[in-house]
Amino acid sequence: WIAKWPGPAELAEASSAEVLRAWGKLGYPRRALRLKECAQAIVERHGGEVPADVEALLELPGVGDYTSRAVVAFAFGRAVPVVDTNIRRVIARVDRGEAEAPPPSKKELEDMERLMPPGNRAGVRFCAAVMELGALVCSARGPRCDECPLAERCAWRAAGFPAYEGKRRAPQKFAGTDRQVRGLLLDVLRDGHADSGLGEHEHFWVSRERLDAVWPDDTQRDRALSSLLADGLLVEANGEFSLPV
Ligand code: SF4
């Protein structure tokens, strides 16, 4: 991705079809289009330079709390609290003595800010270290407390690892959902365009019949197709469908 579009100016010029093809099966393809819109906004509003503050980043398409803070901390080396799934779990265990983090809230940002050491360098390293600890040592299902540098100060360990009794976010299913059908429909366009030899700014059109072949449930397939059109991930003309260019 970086080799193809090294900066916002290059990505802003790319065709949507090319961006969606490069995104491949990463999931949530709307994010690919938001990233391109974000690059265009950076070119228009910030002269092609990624802004270095959280508020300006939050104004950009597709950028939320986590991304804005991660960019400021990890790309610009400024100590703002960053909270991802792994950090949330470590804070819940070490600081609050609970096995799992509750559904996301502003409170976690405040907790992280309170725990961070002063100074940009130390603060950023702390965020990266807690994130890594959550990914590699204090994992969701198999925390390796014997190897953990926080073992002596971990409230959950000290309390004897009590089971979690708080609220949980509903788990997201994938198989059989509209998301899966949307992915299958996009695959037809993406793979077809890649095999067609057409340029990135040329449409590769497929018939309705080719799309109908990917999923047996007419109602669900129609719903998925309509939502792809509404999201700007597909375009339609003369009864045929293409990635946007
Ligand atoms: S002691 Fe165990 S539960 Fe506590 S932070 Fe370390 S790995 Fe996680």
Automatic annotation (TrEMBL):
Reactions accelerated catalytically: Hydrolyzes free adenine bases from 7,8-dihydro-8-oxoguanine:adenine mismatched double-stranded DNA, leaving an apurinic site
Cofactor: [4Fe-4S] cluster
SUPFAM superfamilies found in the cross-reference section: DNA-glycosylase
Keywords: DNA damage, DNA repair, Glycosidase, Hydrolase, Iron, Iron-sulfur, Metal-binding
Record keyword Metal-binding present: yes
One GO MF term: metal ion binding
Domain HhH-GPD: 1-136
Protein name according to UniProt: Adenine DNA glycosylase
Family of the protein in this entry: Belongs to the Nth/MutY family.
GO biological process, one term: mismatch repair
Class of enzymatic activity (EC top level): hydrolase
